[in-house]
From TrEMBL:
Keywords: ATP-binding, NAD, Nucleotide-binding, Nucleotidyltransferase, Pyridine nucleotide biosynthesis, Transferase. Catalyzes the reversible adenylation of nicotinate mononucleotide (NaMN) to nicotinic acid adenine dinucleotide (NaAD). One of its GO terms (molecular function) is ATP binding. The keyword NAD applies. It comes from Cellulomonas bogoriensis 69B4 = DSM 16987. This is Probable nicotinate-nucleotide adenylyltransferase. Pathway: Cofactor biosynthesis; NAD(+) biosynthesis; deamido-NAD(+) from nicotinate D-ribonucleotide: step 1/1. Belongs to the NadD family.
Length: 200
């Protein structure tokens, strides 16, 4: 009897903060690609993020746990948060594969992030470690060249023009982030006074 090979989505992100764009992308990927689970992996120290003073990994991890808690298919992994040094997807995929031997991994990213994938660390190794899923994102049209045939699937998701940058700017100005991020994340941001006094 053949055993079911678990189909696992891996949604990596800085999640500073996690917002409904991330959650809709993961949910839609899970439905369309028939994933058994989507593992959210907050970055430890993102290698390419430009904004000053990225919020501590522990805050970003906890906001991700709060945002995903109600969905039985969503989990959160600490592999990137706990690994010292800069975060690279090649390391993320090795660690997730070790935790879930034999799983069929699908790395989910927005079209904007995927366009830079050839500049990621050990890019040529990534294709054999996971399938890559580029979700559509308002304001970005995907153009990836020079990737192996069949390595990337483009997925149309309901457009939500939400970004973490905008959420941080709103919180800094004292404007509402209700309904852009889950309710528990709104409350977490207020409780810990995140994003006040930052300058982009
Ligand atoms: N609204 C959205 N729709 C679809 N994909 C998204 C959306 N927002 C973010 N993503 C994707 O989710 C992944 C993680 O995103 P990230 O945590 O960097 O959020 P972000 O909103 O892009 O942050 P920032 O504004 O700080 O750059 C990336 O691959 C990104 O492209
Ligand atoms: O491996 C790399 O070199 C690399 C470079 C930039 C981004 N990534 C990954 O892409 C995901 C989205 O990153 P970001 O910075 O847009 O939040 C996250 O999982 C990062 O670890 C990975």
């Amino acid at each position: 009897m053949s055993q079911h090979r678990p189909r696992i989505g891996v949604m990596g992100g800085t999640f500073d903060p996690i917002h409904h764009g991330h959650l809709v992308a993961a949910s839609e990927a899970a439905a369309q690609l028939e994933l058994d689970e989507v593992v959210f992996v907050p970055t430890g120290r993102p290698s390419l993020k430009q904004h000053p003073g990225v919020t501590s990994a522990e805050h970003r991890y906890l906001m991700t746990v709060i945002a995903t808690a109600s969905n039985p298919r969503f989990t959160v992994s600490r592999v990137d948060v706990d690994r010292p040094g800069l975060t690279y997807t090649v390391d993320t995929l090795v660690d997730i594969q070790r935790e879930r031997p034999g799983a069929d991994l699908h790395f989910i990213t927005g079209a904007d992030a995927l366009e830079q994938i050839l500049q990621w660390k050990d890019a040529d190794q990534l294709w054999s470690m996971a399938h890559f899923v580029a979700v559509t994102r308002p304001g970005h049209t995907l153009s990836v060249e020079h990737v192996p045939v069949g390595a990337v699937t483009q997925l149309e998701v309901p457009a939500l023009a939400i970004s973490s940058t905008d959420c941080r700017a709103r919180a800094e100005r004292g404007e509402p982030v209700w309904y852009l991020v889950p309710d528990g994340v709104v409350q977490y941001i207020a409780k810990h006074n995140l994003y006040r006094g930052h300058h982009e």
